[in-house]
Amino acid sequence: MDMLGEAFQKLIEIVARLRGPEGCPWDRKQTPESLKKYLVEEAYEAYEAINSGDHREVREELGDLLFLILMVAYIYQETGLFTLKEMLTLCAEKMIRRHPHVFGEERAQSAEEVLSRWQSIKEAEAKDKKVESSVLGNLPKSLPALQLAFRLGERASRVGFDWSSAEEVLPKLKEEWREIEKALESGSTEKLEEEIGDFLFTVANLSRKLGINPEEALKRSLEKFRRRFIAMEETFRSQGKELRSVSLSEMDEVWEKLKLHERTSS
């Protein structure tokens, strides 16, 4: 066994020890249902580590995610539903099957060609399993809404159901904004919710056409808002004031100064 295999085996042995009779009470108590929320959290921590650009943080967070995946899989192995070996073998077989241009005789000249073949292979797999398939695939409904909107638009575009350019999305964006204005006039909360959803979906598609992930763009904006808001709090606190005691115009004045400072110092 090579060093990589030894490291992987050691991690599995640690999971087995934690789940064993003399293991950790907390780990022994866990189930796939109780751990699934941690899977989401660890995936997001890995996501943020990649965004940070710190390779040491990425290394740590990917390790945490892998460990949790192994823990969940090991629990299923304990129940006899499937084994770790079966899981890894199935994954390997699937990847080989879906890359005939690498492991077979076929050839692919571009990433777009690979995606097209990937979709065809997935459709064939679904047919063999006698399940309904869609170009949209089986994207998790629990994905953040903007990310899901981005991915659904991406999938639909693979069969040509898309605008040809970002500029063509703008009239649709304006149309959706007018629909929001009408919904406001109607006073219907239900209609307003629907139209805001349509507007956000169109924004996600505009972002996609511009090559921007809307989820990441929004996260950056939220972080910028958080940073400025805290700086505003600190500004007033240094003056012996709390935000509740100052007027909106005073807050706006400080806010604009903070924005100007960021722009001039960047």
Automatic annotation (TrEMBL):
All residue ranges annotated as the NTP pyrophosphohydrolase MazG-like domain in the record: 30-103, 166-228
Domain of life: Bacteria
GO biological process assignments: dATP catabolic process; dGTP catabolic process; dTTP catabolic process; dUTP catabolic process; response to stress; TTP catabolic process; UTP catabolic process
Reactions catalysed according to its record: ATP + H2O = AMP + diphosphate + H(+)
Record keywords: Hydrolase
EC number: 3.6.1.8
GO molecular function: ATP diphosphatase activity
Enzyme class: hydrolase
Pfam family, one: MazG
Family recorded in the similarity comment: Belongs to the nucleoside triphosphate pyrophosphohydrolase family.
Protein name: Nucleoside triphosphate pyrophosphohydrolase
